[in-house]
Each structure stands twice: as C-alpha cells, then as structure tokens.
Write a structure and sequence with these properties.
Blueprint: E1 3-9, H1 13-24, E2 31-38, E3 41-48, H2 51-60, E4 68-74, E5 89-91, E6 94-102, H3 105-114, H4 124-135, H5 140-150, E7 153-161, E8 168-173, E9 178-182, E10 185-189, E11 201-204, E12 210-213, E13 218-221, E14 233-234, H6 250-256, H7 258-266, E15 270-271, E16 274-275, E17 292-297, H8 299-316, E18 320-324, H9 325-328, E19 339-345, H10 351-362, E20 366-371, H11 377-381, E21 384-387, H12 400-420, H13 425-435, H14 438-445, H15 449-457, E22 464-469, H16 472-488, E23 491-496, E24 514-518, H17 524-535, E25 541-546, E26 558-562, H18 570-588
Parallel strand pairs: 17-18, 17-19, 19-20, 20-21, 22-23, 22-24, 24-25, 25-26
Antiparallel strand pairs: 1-4, 1-10, 2-3, 2-4, 5-6, 6-7, 7-8, 8-12, 9-10, 9-11, 11-14, 12-13, 15-16
Bound molecules: 5-amino-5-deoxy-1-O-phosphono-D-mannitol (M6R).
C-alpha cells in the first residue's frame, strides 16, 4: 500500500514524481505529496485528495523546482486523512516518505519525547523521521542503519538529508522497492509501473540493503556494509499495458484482456497435451511424496485457491486445505516436510501471504508460489514460482489476475493427477485438449457485456445480494460476491446453496436478489431445488447455467446461458459475467470503479 517514488537526475524532478505518482495511485489514494531539493533547501507540497489535486498544487508553485525529489501517495494506516499526515514528513534535517507500518512507534515516540522530540502528525512515519534525525551526525548511512535497527515492522523508506543535496537514500524491509539508473537519472519506486516509461531494466532492492541514489549511479550495500551488485531484471510489457487504452476504467480493460492473459499463461506450459513446468524450472519432484497441500492467499487470490482445492482433490485425490494467509501464521499450522504450500498472489507483495510462506519454509514445507509480478517478495521467498502472465493489473478489483491464477491451479491439479496416477495419461491429455480451449471460450463470454449491463440495472438499488452455488460454483460465488461488494458497496454474501435452509434463508425477501450458479451437472438438480426455495420466498433470481440446461418457466428473472464448455472449466466463463455485473453496478451507482473507497491495490501491511 502507498505508492512511493524518488528521482534524482539531470531534469526537473517534479515531472517524474507527479507522473510516477499518477501511475502508482492505485496503491493508495487518500492524500499525496512531494519534496524537492531546491536552491533554498528541501521544499514540500502535500494535500489530501487525489494526485490530480497535488498536481494542481505543484502547478501553483512553479518556483519550487529541482532535480532531486521524493513523492508519496498514501493509504492511511496510522493517523487520519489530513495534509499534516500526508507524506513526506520532515524532522530537523530529515525528509522522508514511508510505505509500511512501524509496529513499535509508540515505544520510539516515548523515547524521542523524553529527548524533547515531539511529532506534529499522528503518523508512525514521522516518528521514523524524528528517529533518523536524532541519530544523524553527518553520516547518513550510519544514521539510517542505526535507525532501522530500532524499528520493528515493515518499511520502504526514501530519505533526503538536508545537507546531502541530490542524493536519495533508500532502505526497505517487507515493503517493495525497485530501482533503475537511466541516461536521464536514477529512479526508484514501490512498483515497476512507475519505471517502465523510462526503462525496462530494473533491480529489486533486497531487504535490509541500503541504496545511495545519485544522478549517475545507484550504490547498494548489503547488510554487512559491502557494496553489492544487484541482479538486473527485464520486464516484457511496456507502458501501454499500464494505461487505460481508451477504456473508462482499468477494470474493463483488464476484463477484456483475459483471453490473452490466459493464453500467455497456459500455452507455454502444455507439451504433448500434458502440463509441463520445465520452462519454469519447477521440477516434478516437488509434487512427489506430497501428503497434504496447503493453499494460502488473501481475497481474490484465496478464492482462486478454493477452486484449486476442488480441482486437486477431485482429480489428484490429495487432501488440500485453503488457509486465509492472515489466519495461517497465528494458528500454529500443521506443516512439515511432507507439506506442499502453494501461495497465490497477484502482487507478490501481500504481507500476510509473504509471512505465511516464510513460516511454512521455517517448518520444512516445500513452497511453490503462483505470482504475477516478477521478482516480487513472495516469488523470491518461495522455493519455486509459477508466474502468471497477466501483465500489470491496475484496477483494485482483481479480474484477469484471478483467471490466470485459476489456470495455473488447474495446471497444477492436472500435473498432480499425472504424477499420482489417479487418471491415465490419455485421460489427462483429453482433459488438457479441452482446457486449451479456455481462452477462446472466455473470448466468447466477453460478449456478455450488454446482457450483464442490462441485468445490472435490476441490482443497482439492492441493499443485499446473495450468490449461491454448490462445489465449484460455490467457490466461484465467493469471488462474485467479493467483486460486487468491493466496488459497488452493496452488501452481499456467498452461500453454499444447500446451506441456506440452515438459517440464512430467513434473510431472503423480494428485496434480496439471488445470483445462482448451476453449472455443474452432478449437482444441477440440487441447486435448482435451492433456487426454488428462494424463489418461493419472493427472491428475484439471476441464474447462470450451461447452454443446454432448461429450467421451468418462471424459476428465474434472467437465465444466463454460458458458452459450451467442459463442466470443470465453467468458472472461467461464469466469472466474466460476474465481473461485468460488479463493474456495471458500480458504474451505474456513479462510483470510482478502479479506486473503491478505503482500499488499495497491494496490501503490504498485516
Ligand atoms: O496481490 P494479491 O493477489 O496477494 O492480493 C490479494 C488481495 O488483496 C486481492 O486479491 C484483493 O482481494 C482484491 N482487491 C480483490 O479484488
């Protein structure tokens, strides 16, 4: 959470900072600010609101100019949304921006107060500025290292020292930082999207490594103080992938990108009609002798895990549990060397998921991650990675990342099936031949656009909505419900269709629409009975079924017929309709689809 950027070079830094903050705004959007080294020293401008508000403020103050600066777009943790709490924070000779949470800020604040150093904001970040200033005795590196040694929690800091013009110092723990030196200067940010306009070569600053950033070079020292040559990475997408490309919102663009994202994720991993991870350097050995699998993730990624569990258990007959990452580490999990822990994350930076991976590793588990962002913390922490190839996902509501996560979970399930010999090679090949049709069928499902828009009209005024289904459809309902509440602010719940009658059906009235998924032949009749139950309590029903499923007249208000697809793969096409519904309800309510209130894209705090 929070977008941070620093630039030091041969041109006005403000343009780099504002442009960077605009691309990073999805990481936090309640307030923003920049500090620039000017001839008069470091000057700061900050404001509540969007980066566009900051841009206006900057335009009103053209005299504040310089070639070195730092910028921040905030997702509030400690302290409300005010200009004072916005970053950068200055204390004495230090000006800094921070992404993360300082867990022992109260203790540090008390220590500093005893020395007469009192913050003016309510943030934990200002405490860090006060701390570094109190430790600064003309050696910036010494002050930073002494300061972070006292800090508990997560941080990505960019720090300016008043008497060190045109130098930015950076250090991180937990929170991501990527950097590059270009002919125009050096640039560092919390996310590659802020760098890609200038370069495709970058490096990830390792945890606890200290970077000294000047116009012509970036010197990195490791935790022992030795100069360290970071590994340069290359990204394959360009800035167009992180722009709206004519769409009103990123979310719609990303919905439409799903066929390509799926193709790019699936195709390279099919050899002789079988799943093959050799190009990913993921050996089959890690799947052998696995007695149990734990899938851990948060939010949408966790929902991809629910479908993954269904597929692995159904096809490979290996027990799987799905653990919400924020719960996993606090319940003394049963993990040992026979466990395969699969983590799923779009950003690869979700703090809870990262902590779960670290804990599982400590306990001897094999760790495999399914991650979208190259070189991200979860990817680096895991023994093995299967990258999804969705390209950058900017809308806070995850869409294409979910689909590609699903596709990798299907590939893993089929690989385990092959190794576990719970189906013959020929049976798996037959399944794979159906699976490779998924991107094409998703393309077909994109035609639901207009139908979903008209169905959305009937949902805009609802205050509560239920999503129901069984098996795979229940797992998918969880995602449909999250998507809707996240961006439309309508309360909704996903329920196992058969469980309604054990209490929840008392909530069903003619004011509570039900979106029912009945795509699985083995439980179709059961779900239809459950739909009858809600229908007879007055619910308006939107029913998703296979193309050839007929239902009795009057059972639902809208029946959505999905493209013909193997029943195991229906989540890929059903989710398109559910994503559209969430999108159009949000648009019709006049909400900011891409930046829903209180949220941020990448949750790097626990
Ligand atoms: O980057 P990650 O996939 O680890 O993020 C996990 C969740 O925070 C994320 O999926 C979140 O639930 C989405 N905003 C939902 O649309």
């Amino acid at each position: 959470m929070c977008g941070i950027i620093g630039f030091v070079g041969h041109e006005d830094a403000k343009k780099y900072l504002i442009d960077g903050l605009q691309t990073l705004e999805y990481r936090g959007y309640d307030s923003s600010g920049i500090s620039v080294y000017t001839e008069q020293g470091i000057q700061t401008m900050k404001t509540v609101g969007k980066v566009s508000d900051l841009k206006k403020l900057v335009a009103e103050n053209p005299e504040i100019t310089g070639n070195c600066g730092i910028g921040h777009t905030r997702w509030a943790t400690h302290g409300g949304v005010t200009a004072t709490n916005a970053h950068p924070h200055t204390a004495g000779r230090i000006t800094l921006i921070h992404n993360g949470i300082i867990e022992n800020y109260q203790e540090l604040q008390d220590e500093l107060a005893a020395k007469g150093r009192v913050p003016i904001s309510q943030t934990d970040s200002e405490i860090a500025a006060l701390l570094f200033d109190s430790l600064y005795d003309n050696d910036p590196e010494e002050a930073i290292l002494a300061g972070v040694a006292k800090i508990k929690g997560s941080y990505g800091f960019l720090i300016l020292f008043e008497d060190q013009p045109d130098v930015i110092y950076a250090i991180r723990q937990g929170s991501p930082l990527v950097a590059a030196n270009t002919p125009k200067g050096s640039i560092i940010a919390s996310d590659m999207v802020a760098l890609v306009s200038y370069t495709k070569q970058f490096f990830v600053l390792n945890e606890n490594h200290l970077a000294k950033i000047t116009p012509d070079e970036i010197i990195v020292k490791n935790a022992q103080g030795h100069v360290y040559g970071p590994t340069i990475q290359h990204i394959t997408w360009d800035i167009g992938a992180a722009q709206k490309g004519g769409y009103d919102y990123f979310m719609m663009k990303e919905i439409k990108e799903q066929p390509t994202a799926l193709h790019n994720t699936i195709a390279p991993r099919i050899v002789n009609d079988l799943p093959d991870f050799s190009a990913d350097h993921v050996p089959d050995d890690i799947f052998k002798d696995v007695k149990n699998i734990i899938i851990t993730a948060c939010g949408t990624a966790m929902h991809a895990g629910l479908i993954g569990r269904n597929m692995v258990e159904r096809l490979a007959r290996i027990p799987v549990t799905v653990e919400i990452a924020s719960e996993f580490r606090y319940q003394n999990p049963l993990v040992d060397e026979n466990t395969l822990l699969i983590s799923i994350s779009q950003s690869g930076e979700t703090a809870d998921t990262l902590a779960a991976v670290k804990l599982a590793k400590e306990r001897g588990a094999k760790t495999l991650s399914v991650v979208n962002v190259k070189g991200s913390s979860i990817a680096r922490e895991s023994d093995h990675v299967l990258y999804t190839h969705a390209g950058p996902e900017i809308a806070v509501a995850s869409t294409k990342a979910y689909s590609v996560q699903l596709s990798v979970m299907y590939l893993i399930a089929m690989k385990l099936t092959l190794l576990n010999q719970t189906k013959t090679e020929e049976e798996i090949q037959a399944l794979v031949r159906e699976f490779v049709k998924v991107p094409e069928l998703v393309e077909e499902a994109l035609d639901f656009d207009n139908l979903a828009e008209s169905v959305a009209n009937s949902l805009v005024k609802a205050e509560d909505i239920f999503f129901v289904g069984r098996g795979l459809d229940y797992a998918l309902s969880c995602e449909g419900s999250l998507k809707l509440k996240e961006i439309s602010y309508i309360h909704s719940e996903a329920y196992a269709a058969g469980e309604l009658k054990h209490g929840t059906i008392s909530l069903i009235t003619d004011n509570v629409p039900v979106i029912a998924l009945a795509t699985q032949p083995d439980v179709f009749a059961k779900v239809i009975s459950n739909v009858e139950e809600v229908r007879s309590r007055g619910a308006r029903v939107i029913l998703l079924t296979n193309e050839d499923s007929s239902v009795k007249p009057g059972l639902c208000d809208h029946q959505i017929l999905l493209p013909k697809i193997h029943p195991l793969f229906t989540p890929f096409v059903s989710v398109i309709f559910l994503q559209y519904i969430a999108y159009y309800v949000s648009v019709k309510k006049g909400l900011n689809v891409d930046q829903p209130r209180n949220l941020a894209k990448s949750v790097t705090v626990e």
